[in-house]
Structure to design on (215 residues):
C-alpha cells in the first residue's frame, strides 16, 4: 500500500506540474497576443500621426504661399516695366520710380544711406537686383527717418535717400511694388522688407548690390 501510495503521489505531482505548464503556456500566448495587438495599435497610430503631420505641414505650406502671394494692404503694383539700359532721363510711372528702363550702373544698395537725392535711374537698377529703396520727403518726422535708416543700415539689398517730389512722408519701393506710410513702426514696413528684399518680383535675383555707384 505504501508503494502504491507513493506512486499515486508522484503521478499527482506530475499532473499538477503539467497543469501548471499548460497554464503558463496559455498565459504566454495571451501575453504575446496582447503585445502584438498593442504593437499594431501603436503602429497604426504612428502611421496615422505621420500622415496627420504631413497633411498639416502641407496645409501650412499652402497657407504660407497664399500669404506670400497676397498683396500688402495699400501697396501699388506696376506692370510692363522696361528693362533697357539708358543714359538719358526716364519718364517713370510713379514718383519715386518702382521699375523701368534704367542706367547701366546700379546704386550701391548694401544697406547704403544717402543724405542727398540720388539719380533715380541708378536706384531703379538697384531695384532690378532685388533691393528695396526707402525714400522720404520733408514731411517725414525726423524720428521716423532715423528709425528707417537704422533698419536699412542693417539690411543688405536696401538703400535710402531723400526724395522731395513724393507725396507721402515715407515710401518703400521694390521692382513693380510700392508702399507709402507715415510711420516706421507701421507693421507693413517689416512686411514689405520681408517680402520684397530679394523677393519673387526680382528680375535679377542675386545680382550685386556693391561695386556700383556710391554718390
Amino acid at each position: 500500500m505504501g508503494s502504491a501510495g507513493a506512486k499515486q503521489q508522484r503521478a499527482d505531482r506530475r499532473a499538477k506540474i503539467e497543469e501548471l505548464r499548460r497554464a503558463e503556456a496559455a498565459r504566454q500566448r495571451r501575453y504575446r497576443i496582447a503585445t502584438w495587438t498593442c504593437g499594431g495599435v501603436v503602429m497604426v497610430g504612428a502611421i496615422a500621426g505621420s500622415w496627420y503631420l504631413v497633411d498639416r505641414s502641407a496645409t501650412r505650406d499652402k497657407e504660407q504661399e497664399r500669404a506670400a502671394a497676397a498683396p500688402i494692404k495699400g501697396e501699388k503694383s506696376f506692370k510692363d516695366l522696361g528693362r533697357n539700359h539708358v543714359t538719358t532721363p526716364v519718364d517713370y510711372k510713379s514718383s519715386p520710380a518702382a521699375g523701368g528702363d534704367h542706367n547701366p550702373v546700379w546704386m550701391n544698395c548694401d544697406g547704403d544711406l544717402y543724405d542727398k537725392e540720388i539719380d533715380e535711374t541708378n536706384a531703379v537698377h538697384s531695384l532690378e537686383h532685388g533691393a528695396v529703396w526707402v525714400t522720404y520727403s520733408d514731411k517725414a518726422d525726423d524720428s521716423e527717418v532715423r528709425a528707417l535708416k537704422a533698419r536699412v543700415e542693417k539690411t543688405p539689398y536696401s538703400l535710402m535717400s531723400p526724395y522731395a517730389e513724393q507725396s507721402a512722408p515715407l515710401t518703400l519701393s521694390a521692382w513693380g511694388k510700392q508702399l507709402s506710410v507715415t510711420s516706421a513702426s507701421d507693421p507693413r514696413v517689416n512686411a514689405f522688407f520681408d517680402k520684397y528684399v530679394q523677393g519673387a518680383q526680382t528680375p535679377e535675383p542675386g545680382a550685386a548690390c556693391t561695386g556700383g555707384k556710391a554718390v
In short: Helices lie at 2-69, 120-128, 142-153, 187-196. The longest strand covers residues 132-136. The chain is about 45% helix and 10% strand.
